[in-house]
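User: Hey, my collaborator sent me this sequence without any context and asked if I could get a structure. I don't really work with proteins. Can you help?
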Amino acid sequence: MSNQIRPNFQVNSFLLFFMIHSAQLGIGILVFQRALVKEAGYDSWISVLLAGLMAHLSLFFIFQMLKYEHQDISEIHQFVYGKWLGRLFTLFIIVQFIWTGLTVLHAYIRIVQIWMFPTLPTWFPTLIILILAYYTIAGGFRVIVGMCFFKIILAFIITLPMFLTLSYAQWGNLSLVPVHTMTELWNATKTVTFNYAGMITILVYYPFIKEGQKSKSYAHLGNAATIFLYLLVTFMCFLFYSEKQLTITIWPFLTMTKTVSFTIIERFELVFVAAWVLVIVPIVIQNLWCASRLAKKIFKVKQKYPLILFMMIYVIVSHFIDDAHEVRLLYEWNAKFGFYVSYVYILVLFLGYMLMRKIKSRAQPS
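Assistant: No problem. I've predicted the 3D structure and written it out in structure-token form, which is a compact way to encode the shape of the chain:
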């Protein structure tokens, strides 16, 4: 199927760098160091690198599938599995996008409640953010890309003061000689893979990218930027905390902001938490847009109807899941599901797609 998106709705290929990097930069950067150290200690920086390389491999498989006539994952599913089974598999991907957006949103709101407003009801900030998300999505894909672009700029600005924490660095903590087993490193790798999983959103918005196949270098650059950022943050946490401190600190990178202060800003951590909403919102928007876009294609309805339905689900769930333990389970199970979707399933789908192309090409009369 040919690309039917009009050029005035498409964006330049270099912006894929910001889309990929934006989808991968969210709530995970504030928390993943604790889970890493529990599995592989200070050697877990290797796992950050391995997980990033796995994401590069998934991106390679994704672009190999997209280089033919099928422009998004719904079309790929129908090509591999047929019309009805293909729609069922697309429905699973829709659930993954909804779940991911909900997880990121809930995890951030939980931080706001603990660090700033303990009595704030979960449904209220959920509703405010969803209203912003709706108007952004209603503005079209190009508006979403613009938000992702400015998100990266803002994230760079608000994380720059974190380098002041290097004045407390314990350089003796670092060791580049691994002492943990491959099993421990693999377990640590699985804990951080979810932070790279946002790259699968390209399977939905690929038709909106001009010269799609020429943009793959920008996609890999975006993923490489995420690897560099996560390695940098990981080493900063290693220099700031002992291994024991890291295992008991819930938000290692966020907690470090408490040591940063300025003449006019004494509580920098409050500014950091408040500003981080502009980092979280584009991820929620991307996932909602992808879910509603796929629902539009398989159910043949206007995109706004599934979008409103998914937002209603967010508000309802926010009313019932209002406990730290429940939010943690929501995050952990989504991370596990996301691992299998973004790495295992993408490989299986790629192999199935290549096999079906070979079978159908042979079946065509010469």
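In plain terms: The mean pLDDT is 91. You can pass these tokens on to your collaborator as they are.
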